[in-house]
Design goal:
By secondary structure, this protein is an alpha/beta fold. It has helices spanning 6-13, 63-67, 75-89, 92-95, 111-114, 116-119, 159-162, 174-177, 181-187, 222-230, and strands at 23-26, 30-35, 38-43, 103-106, 123-127, 141-146, 154-155, 168-172, 192-196, 213-219, 241-247. It starts with 5 loop residues before the first helix and ends with a strand.
Amino acid sequence: MNSKWKLYEELIDSVPGDMKVERCVVGARWIAIKSEGSVGLAMRMHDIMPSTPLTGRMAGMKLRELASYIRSWDFHEASLGLAAVNAFNNSPSRHGALLKNTSEKEGATSIFDLVENEIRGKAVTVVGHFPNIEKLAGFCKLSVLERKPSGTDFPDPACEYILPEQDFLFTTAVTIINKTLPRLLELAEKAAVFLVGPSTPINDLVYAHGVDVLAGSIITEPGRAMDMFSEGACIRSLGKSISYIRKNR
């Protein structure tokens, strides 16, 4: 097996074989999968048509079977797979015992606000043009990698030249969907790596692949969240979703 698939296979295997998909919502910005009272999220890829042979047959499917689509090169199917992975890995019941060892921030606190002192003066690369990312340039040596670059952004291929020299890498878990994460982790071997955003699977197995911090979301009101996502809700509008910042110990 190509070693780049190892993380994907481990995430698939992390999902119990007896769990089933209860409901799938493909919203304006997020895909949400509900299973056994938990909701897993993944970013909807806006430049990919949300049509797949899976449509109409996901309810009742084994959650692990849907999770296996995380390997798909159809990025809509891969988003469905990651949401299925997160329906187990990011469940409130699974993480209840870990709360005392976890930094918990309600609402939409930016990861960059939380680590401002840590990254001050350092070489920092961010994959994806986050909202208000420009303010980081005021206190660190910032590089932004973007598939569709604008302004001072660097195009994706610049990662080969930039990442080996960085102190910190912040990347969205969308890089799991588009299969770029394994290479980014190889290039950023010397950097502290933060995997961030609601698509992030909160499972310690990710640390073994070169990630140092997981910053993901756990949905605490699954029924309400599914209804909200079906009406195009964003994360902030949910109110009681909780972001967890977990460092590799």
